[in-house]
Amino acid sequence: MKVLKFDGECISSSENLLKTVKIIMSEKDFPIIVVPAFDGITDLLIDGIEKARGKEVNVSDTISVLTETHYNIAQEAIKNDKVFNKTIQDITVQIKKAERLLYGVAYTEEITDAVSAYILSYGERIAAIILSGVLEDNGCQSKIIETDKIGLVTDENFENAIVNLEDFKRNFNFTAHSIVNEKVIPIFTGFFGSTPEGKVTTFGRGGGDYTASVLAYGFGVSELEIWKAGTAFMSADPDMVKNAKIIEKLSYFEAAELVYFGKRSLHPLTIEPVAGAEIPIFVKNILCPECAGTQIAKDAYIEENIIKSVSQNENISMIRIHGTGIGYKPGLIRKFSNALSAENINIFATVSSQTTINLIIENKDAELSYEILNKYKGKIIEKIDFVRSMALVAVVGEGLVRKRGIFARILGAVSEEKVNVEMASAGASEVAIYIIVPKDELNDVVNAIHEEFFPEVKDKN
Ligand code: ASP
Ligand code: MG
User: Relative to the alpha carbon of 37, which ligand is closest?
Assistant: First the structure.
């Protein structure tokens, strides 16, 4: 048995939707499907919630775009009138519920995390109905399972919930048996679960991947396939490096590094549930279903070249905390990271010495982090500053810590471009080296490192 998860872009045009249906129907056994919202719908709902606050009139704008977008896709993709009418009837019921919740926001002028999460879940609920309609139109019976009703229990973080895997597995067994025995294709809504009391919680943007991984674990399947409309894991960002090539195999550790980078990546929590159960992930492309894609599995596959990918994050800032006594004072990093995490600010990486602690964070968090940490200025902390417009380059590959000369080659390639490496972290991870460079030099840096490790690709052109 397999779990198949499709990205929003795989279902957001009737052309792609039909490709997706073909892939589902070509499976021999009944696959378990995880469906996301259509592209743009989660954004529409996020925006709609904000606009609804105290403004009843704005609700109808959101609802008409919601209705129209889904109506158009259904109309293009479903040929049989009866199936089409039934689909529209079913999505109308869901849209009405979302509408009522938005009016709630308008009247109460209050947006709670719980209500937001509940409203956002309608993107997936509606998409599931359309996918089910298109499958039926093609002669294939399916059954929708909404994931707030199956014991997919999470913590109480409504925006970035984490599933309690053990509780889930315990709660889930009965449901699993009954669904699989029905001999129809089960379609699970991605992106959300529920608290033990049954309130909807979401997994954060792109969270459908995590749903798929959790279900793969729950069902104990042999494979998880994550389908995209394009290539995902590549040796570099193809918009930046012309000769970037697809990565055939990654270990769970390499993938766990790379999920933080790249446009078609995975939700960062996707790796953990399947890695524990040693279920391989195949990341595939609906535009080339026969292509192997990228396999992510337990075994470290060490290429002669060692390096598999040169990836970048362009949206980072660096907070620098200086003080001559920093190395002497225990507990400082913990203190800072507690202060930031209390505000939901995530630290991407830290690099420290005896006199400086550097925290790498996302640009959007820079000002607030600076404000929070500045309060600690005093005896030990002499100065805090932050640098914007930096870029983090991650060079990833199993075996890089044990192979002599890799770090030197990276630094050499960068220095040939006459670029200064602002900071580096080598040896922190077994599979990744990070360097930080000025953002406006990023393109040259990534190309130079890629050329250093993938010269054969260059020579072919
Ligand atoms: N619909 C959600 C989002 O856009 C979850 C997902 O696509 O996986 O973030
Ligand atoms: Mg997505």
Answer: 1
